[in-house]
Each structure stands twice: as structure tokens, then as C-alpha cells.
Amino acid sequence: MVSLKVATAATVLILVPCLLLAYRLARSRFRGKRLLSTLLGLPLVLPPTAVGYLLLKLLSARGPLGRETLGFDLDLILTWRGAVIAAGVMAMPLVVRTAQVAFEAVDPRLEMMARTLGYNRLQTFVRFTLPLARRGLLAAIILGFTRAVGEFGATVTIAGSIPGQTQTLASAIYAAQQVGDHREAYVLLAIAVIVGFVAILVAEHLARPHAEDSGRT
Amino acid sequence: MTKTRSPASAARRLCRGAVLVALLVGACGEADRAQDGAAEPLTVFAAASLRDVMLEQAREYRRLGGRELEFNFAGSNVLALQLEASPGAADVFLSADSLWVEYLERAGLVRSESTVRFLSNQLVVVAATTSPLAFAELGALASADVRYLAIGHPEAVPAGRYARAALERVAVDSGPLWSQVEERIAPAADVRAVLALVEARDDTVGIVYRTDALSSTAVRSLLEIPGSSTPPIGYFAAVTRESEHIEAATELVEYLAGEEARPIFERHGFDVPVVPRG
Question: N or C: which end of chain B has fewer CB within 10 A?
Fold first, then answer.
């Protein structure tokens, strides 16, 4: 199913950059932090079609990331890889924000203790911070994934809605409705509701604070 | 020690904020509606391909003393389904084919006695201005140089249905052209979306109305599809059953089908039927 492929690829693609950004936003102070945080949040508040149009113009043959500027073709427009980019951009703010909250909930003193025990920064991050924040991070991933599954506006603008190639669950619902095929629309709707329901259920369960690993001492 | 924020409480706060914003937006909408003056504007649901020309017609209509027009532009199929869901939402429906007008006539949502065919159009094959693609005949669309063929959704959007009909009528070596290119069809929500896709990819061609090709400087027309190879492409105007301004809406339809509207339509590349319409 195209939706699962696109959403999985989008989540994997943005995961590492999102976690690093979220950690930096949670832990350090630096010039332009608020600006960065605001820019990262934009896809959350902009109309998805605006993001899609922006991507379309960036990636079009003569755009700043287009074939003529780069000298090679990223081949993203009307392809499933383009859908991945669109879904990834739209899911990014949700992942960063949720992960940031999860990192903030980890007591920095635990990290400092790890450092005094001789672990370097990377080891501390991988062996202490990530495990301590794991519930919030899983919630971030699930929310990002479902956002990617549900993304429509930006995806359809740059990747179109080609059945079997770039048609996702969201664009299939739109197509079914365009044609007036209510039966198919209902079936797809039911799938969307089930996926969303399960995802929120799991994410809420993970996000509920547990004494053992919410960073409280 | 509980100074740390849990993700759940952050999410709750986010939700509360979202509800507040939604309420505010709703309240603004109410205030706007309360300000309406005496001569209310007419609401026109118009096919996306009529966008530029109808905006100009609206100015002209106003200049001639007619009512102000408010538009909702989308694929005719989308508009028809919207009218089905909310029959009083528009006064006039301008469809790019007869199918969706008939759909609403069957549902009793437009006044069939008011329906007129007021325009014709023609299909053209377009590519980006900078695209190296060139065609002498429609059959060449099967060539490997064409990565995608963008058309309106072939089952719903009028321009897409016409395009499909045209491609089904052309025979190449191994059957109808449609079955040769079907794999490469990129269905779009309306003709304007087709143009956006064509502008973005040099190896993509689209099939749109001649008038759309004229309206964009980023695409050029490669080939005209003769009217003989498509079903007649007609635009239909109809007054909705639940319009609260039937008289004004009928006047608008008469204007659009009349001599006064003709020069603007022709300037945009539409064909105005000479013979009695309907």
C-alpha cells in the first residue's frame, strides 16, 4: 500500500535529523533558537497546499532545486519519492515538538552523572537520554507516522494521485469522492479511522507519565 | 520534583488552544455575514477552466449595472457534489460538461428549464515552454519521451473525460492510444492542477482546454485535438433550485449566453455557439 510505504519512508528519513534538532532545542541555548523553532513549526500552521506549492516551485525543472539548477534530476515531482518529501516536511514539526518535550522531561542531572562516570556525549545520549525519553520519542514517531499517512494537500500537489504509484489513502479518498464513488470512499474512510484510532491510543498510552521513566527522581 | 512538563499535558494545552482559535474564526464569519447590504451578491459555482474569463465577466457585469458575483472555482464534479450536499450554496452553476448538470437535474437541484449551453472549447496537448517535446500527431503520445500525461481525473473532471474519450478514439498499432498511455496518466483534481504539473516537469505533457493553454505563459500548446475526435465540449449554465435570487440569477445566465458577454469570451479563446443554445 502506497500510504504505508510513503509514511514509513518519510518517518525514517526525518527521524535522525528530528531527534537531533529536538535534543538541541531541549538542551542548549543558542542564537536564533527561537527563529529555528518557529521555522520548524511552520508546516504545522501553514495550509498544506501552501507547503506543497512551495515544494513544487522549488523542485520544478527551473526551480532552485530543479534539474536545470542542480545539473541532475531529483525526480521528485509525480513520483512516490516526492510524496515522501511532502509527508516528511509536514510530519517534521510534530516529531520535533513531541520529541523536544520528551527530552525536556529527562532530568539533565542524570546526563551529567553519566558524563562524570566517563561516558562521552554520544554514549550518554545513546545509553541514557534515549532510553529515558523512549516513551515520548515513540509517541513522537507514531504521531509523525500518522501525520505522514494522513497528509494530503502537500502530497497531492507535488506527487499527484496516480493509482498504484503516488495515490495515498488520503488522495484515494479524495479521488473516490470526486468520482462520486461513495462505497469506496466509505471503505477507505473506515481504514483511515481505524489507523488513526489505534495510533492515538498507542501514542496516548506511551505519553502517559510513568514514575519509572518520566525523569522524575 | 515535578517541574518537568509531561508530553500529555503539553498536548492538552495544544488542544485547548486549537478549540479557542476555532471558536474565534467561527465568530468572525458570523460578523461578516451580518454586514450584508441590500443587493446581495450572487454566488456562482464555476468550472475551474472558467476562472480568468469569469473574473473579467464579473467586472463587466458589475459595470453594466448587474449584481456583484462571488465565485467558487473547482472541477465541475466537485462543485456538483458540493451543491448536492448544500443545495442552497450557489445561485448559478457553470459546468464544463453536460454530465454534471444532468446529474443535478436528475436530483432536482437545478432548474432544468433554465439550463443553457453558452460556450464551447477545444482540447490541446501542452508542455512546459522549455520542454524539448514536440508532436506532429496525437499517436506520438505513446512515445517513451513522455514520462507522464497529466489530465483531469478521467472519470470525474470534464476535461479529463474528454481527454480520455479523445485518446480512446485514436488507434495506434496495437489498439487504442488510451491503453498505451494509461500507465502514465497522472490524474489531477482540475485543469489548473494539470497546468501546475506540466509546468514543473519537462518530460510531462498535459491535456487541457485551449483557453487554459492561452492563460499560462509557462506552457505552450503542442497540438490541437480536433473537435471531431472528442464529444462536443460544452459549458452549461443553470440556476439552482434553491437560489433565493432566481430572477437575478436568470438575468446573469441570460447575460452570459447573450451578445454582451461574447467579446470577453472570444478574447479568452472560447467558442461562443451562434445558434440557439440549449
Answer: N
Q: Is the pLDDT of residue B277 over 50?
A: no
Element (H, E) at B185: strand B185-188
Residue B271 is classified by DSSP as B
> Does B1 contact chain A (CB < 8 Å)?
yes
Contact B200 A217 (CB under 8 A): no
Cα of A89 vs its chain's centroid, Å: 7
- The H-assigned helical ranges of chain B are 7-34, 51-63, 76-85, 98-106, 158-169, 177-181, 191-200, 210-215, 246-256, 262-267
Quote the minimal CA–CA distance from A157 to chain B in Å: 8
**For strand B234-239 and strand B116-120, is the pairing parallel, antiparallel, or unpaired?**
antiparallel
Looking up cell 526551480 gives: A63
Please report residues of B whose CB lies closer than 8 A to that of A177.
Answer: 81
What pLDDT digit, counting tens, does each position of A137-191 carry? 999 999 999 999 989 999 999 998 888 889 999 999 988 887 778 899 999 999 9
CB contact under 8 A, A104 and B4: yes
Query: What does the domain layout of chain A look like in residue ranges?
Result: 2-100+133-207
pLDDT, one tens digit per residue, over B95-109 is 999 899 999 999 999
CB contact under 8 A, A175 and B187: yes
Q: Which domains does chain B have, with CATH numbers?
A: 42-120+233-267 (3.40.190.10), 123-229 (3.40.190.10)
Q: Which three cell numbers stand for residue A3?
A: 500510504
Chain A residue whose CA is closest to B154: A179
Nearest residue on chain B to A56, alpha-carbon basis: B200
CB-CB neighbors (< 8 A) of A132 in chain B? none
- Name the residue type at position B65: G
Average pLDDT over residues A56-82: 87
Contact B207, B225 (CB under 8 A): yes
How far is Cα B165 from Cα B171, in angstroms, rounded to an integer? Answer: 12
Q: Is the Cα dihedral B57, B60, B62, B64 positive or negative?
A: negative
Taking CA atoms, B238 is separated from A121, A159, B108, B119, B228, in Å, by 70, 35, 12, 13, 26
Beta-bridged to residue B237, according to DSSP, are B94, B116
- Closest-CA residue of A relative to B77 is A178
Report yes or no for ipTM above 0.90: no
Q: Are strands B92-95 and B42-47 parallel, antiparallel or unpaired?
A: parallel
As a CATH number, domain A2-100+133-207 is 1.10.3720.10
